[in-house]
Design goal:
The chain contains 9 helices and 6 strands.
Length: 247
């Protein structure tokens, strides 16, 4: 599987799933724009991927259209038209529903769902002109199964799944595929920093595979959906969750 000559953007790529995706796409030959709100982390990731000519970093708040458009323009100047977009950036929220404020709800929706509007609109003209493109959205198994104390997060990721299906229908005849990967219980810095991370081993032991997943498990699925081999797959939800949810 080769992505040589392709330009990819991965959001939230300074650590965890995003970093694993950036690594996998770079290994396949893509030039990668590493976007993250953590500027130092993005720079470190880009350097690891090969630096100038192979990867560039941008400090991007994906909830702000101006920052997204500026970073997309930078990637285009450095590497040429954008052919692959991995919408991975996101935040979580563990909170009883009745304690969830409007501000907290809006923040989760903006980062996890509205950002797909900004990021996808920023790169889609390149894909339409090329009549080729791969958009892979990272959703969540919490949107498939439901998850207590995560109403805002699950709702936002459910929106990602719906967005994927709708946009896939709209773009199917134009050489552009749109798919999503809902991770299950994946051992990432974000997970370890949450209340679930405090009982990681216990939750993993209760899962069908008796272990947590790795960011590389998600990256493998994302890289496949970004490849030529997945050219006849669109609107698909490729669950990578160790058996937590079957569909």
């Amino acid at each position: 599987m080769s992505l040589a000559g392709k330009t990819a953007i991965v959001t939230g790529a300074a650590s965890g799933i995003g970093l694993a995706c950036a690594r996998r796409l770079a290994q396949a030959g893509a030039r990668v724009a590493v976007w993250d709100i953590n500027a130092a982390g993005a720079e470190a990731a880009a350097a690891e991927l090969g630096g100038k000519g192979r990867a560039i970093a941008a400090r991007v708040d994906v909830s702000k259209r101006a920052e997204v458009e500026a970073a997309a323009a930078q990637a285009r100047r450095e590497f040429g038209p954008i052919g692959i977009l991995v919408n991975n950036a996101g935040i979580t929220l563990f909170q009883p529903f009745l304690e969830t404020s409007e501000e907290a709800w809006d923040r989760v929706m903006t980062v996890n769902l509205k950002s797909l509007l900004f990021c996808t609109q920023a790169v889609l003209p390149d894909m339409l002109e090329a009549q080729w493109g791969r958009i892979v959205n990272v959703s969540s198994s919490s949107a498939q199964t439901g998850s207590a104390r995560m109403a805002a997060y699950a709702a936002s990721k459910g929106g990602v799944i719906g967005f994927t299906k709708a946009l896939a229908q709209e773009l199917a005849a134009k050489g552009i595929t749109v798919n999503n990967v809902p991770p299950g219980f994946i051992d990432t810095p974000m997970l370890r920093g949450s209340e679930v991370g405090e009982r990681l081993e216990q939750v993993a032991a209760a899962s069908p595979m008796k272990r947590a997943g790795k960011p590389e498990d998600i990256a493998a699925a994302v890289a496949f959906l970004a490849s030529e081999e997945a050219g006849y797959i669109t609107g698909h939800t490729l669950s990578v969750n160790g058996g937590r949810y079957s569909n």
